[in-house]
Amino acid sequence: GRSGAEGWTDCWATGSGGSLRLVTDATWSSFDADAYLRPRRGGGTSYVKALEDTDARREPVGWRDDDAFAPGEGWAAAVPVLPARKAAGLHAAMARPVMVTPASQLLVPSITRLNATWFLADFGRELQGGLVLSSGGGIPPGSRVRVVSGESVQRMAAHSATGAGRGGSPSATGGDSSSGVVGDTWGFDFEWTLRAGAQTIEQHQYMEFRYVNVVFADSLAAISGWALRAWRVEYPWEEGHARFDSSDATLNAVWELSRYTVQAGIIDTYTDSNTRERRPYEADGLVAATARGWVQRDFAWARHSHSYVFAFPTWPVEWQQMTTLLAYADYWATGEADLAAAYMPLLVHNLRLQDRDGTGLLNCSAVTRGGCAAGRAGQGHHIVDWRPAPNRSMFAFSEHLSVTQAFALAGLGRLGSLAELLNRSALAASLAGEAAALRASMEARMWDGNGTGRWCDGACSEVGWRSGVTTSAWMLWLGLLPAASVPAAWSQLAGWGLEGFGDYGAFVFLGALAAFDGDDGSALLRALTKCDAQSWCAMMRDYNATMTREGLYGAGGTSSHPWGTAPLAGVAGGVVGVSQTSPGFATFSVRPRLARLTHATLRVPTLHGFIDVHATPNETRVAPPCGTTATVCVRDGSAPRRLLLDG
Questions:
Q1: Is residue 628 a contact partner of residue 585, using CB atoms and an 8 Å limit?
Q2: Each residue of 455-472: pLDDT tens digit?
């Protein structure tokens, strides 16, 4: 810390419940670690807070582990404080403290020597954490080593680099079969300077990475005894909270890709991606919090993040609108409406009803100069889908976007229900009136009554009466289609497939398919297990991904995006068909859609305990938690049916 630092630390012993408070006083000393860590702001992204160009020659030797260490030059006495004075106004975070790998469990990579001075370390899977470089003392003092971490490995051309300076990078090429140059670094490129003798340099800022290039300034240093390891930082994870297995190896791999992402790709809040942009976004939370809810019995993590984006919403209109869905999801998971109660005025504001024009519909131009009729909707102020945005065959852009109206109408309904639960009858009545007015405007201008009826992509006259798969997906997912119109919308989606949807759109797409029992599960299974260029299968096959990527296809973006974890909901809620019917899973239904699967086994964590399901084409076994009621649905068939209740 800074010289003269003051503070205290509370420590708890796991299991025993014992605690110890360590308070700084006049017997403590402090040292400004910046003197040897030499932090600097990194390139590649504005969210890389600091890189550490550590100079071990400036580090006080022995301060970590030498009991006889005596502070010398550069050390200052700590300032004694009373903890109570500093603690005023503080409160405990809702999320649990993160876990950091202990020194005895550091991760060890496989290391490949690329030439005289270059090495490639592969930790096997993407992780969040930092590096630890140890030397036995044979490296000449003042030797420099460049460290570059990233998410991918590019091909490396033949070269003989002898310098560790930033100009000595190897070239990447598609013509050489050897691989070794770390790519997708997101600016994590720094230089360490070694001192004489045995030493350990430990990184303090965390990164998200899998691969590391270690580049020594000279070959003598490169052949000296050294070792690279890594510490990991994660949010607490309970191994027994969820499991899934099926007869399809690809489906199992896609599940594990997604599961590992929400285990190892987050800390104490959902974000865009901790590789690049460490800021909570509403859509990232919608997908990641839903996904994590299928595999962990932990409701504080999502609530902690929700409370931030309610107060500090991001820029896309649709992202602001979906805060109402997040508030309702918290109530649905916990049975408590207190989070919504605390933020109700903000949630009402975030619906963006103030953007309505004379048509009674929300107008895209209310926050966008030049309108939204062409190209990317709102040039960033509106997001219909992302990486990619929907093409013209999927959606017609206009001044009155169907997706924007859908979020507003669905949000009004959910906030109205929460207001009733909170006994705020006047607010509930006001929200119901707003919902009725918006629906009337939508039906007057956006409803195509031909056939079974469908919603247009905007005001029907503005979009040429077009109704693309994007609109159908959002309306079906949000429950805004009349029952008679659902089969046609579902068939449109199933016939189109996942093509053209991004990670976020895939979450909506899978949710829409799961909302109606349109087939035996073949459409869901096809979307989850296909292996073309736009698939989770391709993430693993073509990009060697161990976490879900930012987009479903194409280069670019991070390889550690938790909003790519829609398969967890698609499998649990769609293929296995576990569906919540009351808050906290007090009641739920199970309707397996196995298609060609010969078996599927799933555990789902809930407020009341764990739901265990084992399904085959001829049998569905469900073990519900105590105090809950399960409705088990089986498909019609000629074989006789038998119901067995045990306990």
A1: yes
A2: 999 999 999 999 999 999
